[in-house]
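COMPLEX REQUEST
Ligand: zinc ion
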Amino acid sequence: MIVDAHAHSFPSVRGWLNGKETRSLSYGKVKIGSDYERWFPPSFVNSASPIELLIEYMDWNDISKAIVTQGPMYGFHNDYLVEEQKRHHDRIRIFGILERYTNAQSLDALSNMAQAGMCGLKFELESIISNDTQFRFDSSEVMSVCEQCQASGLSIMVHPVRGEGTEVAIAKVIDTFPRLKIIIAHLGLAPFPGWESKIHLAKRENVFLDCSGLPASFDSDEYPYVQAQGFIKWAVDQVGSEKILWGSDYPALLRWCTYRQTLDIVRSSNVLSDMEKERILGTNAARVFGFL
Ligand SMILES: [Zn+2]
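STATUS: Structure written out below.
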């Protein structure tokens, strides 16, 4: 079984990035404030990423299940994704997102997420901090959110910040809530400075890493992404292959490579054993998210 542990789906882009509104344009382009950028291939006619399209990509590449996560740049789509999870419960599980972390509202929203069968809550720290420089992952508000996640069985997926600094706050959350499963996204944002110390956080029992999005980070690396393969192998040697989950970062990743090529970074790797590949491609995610 192959599981994509990091994909994105949204009916349209409707969020923010660096304090500017983001909105779908057409043919893969997105408006950011008064500017625009290409975020997806031109075949994404409405610059949207509906679940039906993700499932077609999954079927095309023999992927059984996907963890659909969210980010402020794409918008806040809990309601859309809850409905889609009801219809496609055998194929997708979702991570919710909060717009604010003030106590009363966020704790209510979390109980709704748990009741709706979401598997966790996503923190896109890089975006959150770009919008609110005072935000701290180990503030009392966020600690209350994490406590509630642990109590209601929700995991946390953390997109960290480039450079050194956030590991201390992440480690505090990890150590305070030993039953809270935490997935650190994008292999700790390898190869940007500080990624190695984020990998080492996964030595703790309740912490895992997803290795999504690597081709976007290695400008000089082309398929078969030998550098990215080496970084995954390094992480395996540090924390063990049972701690790493393959993910794509679909659909943004399709600007750099095909869905199949991002899968082949692990599946066709010359530096991982068959058992390591099997764990990274599906067995670990099945265990972490309770598919087995
Ligand atoms: Zn992502």
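REMARKS: The domain at 3-10+49-288 is CATH 3.20.20.140 (TIM Barrel). Residues 6, 8, 69, 71, 249 surround zinc ion (CB under 6 Å).
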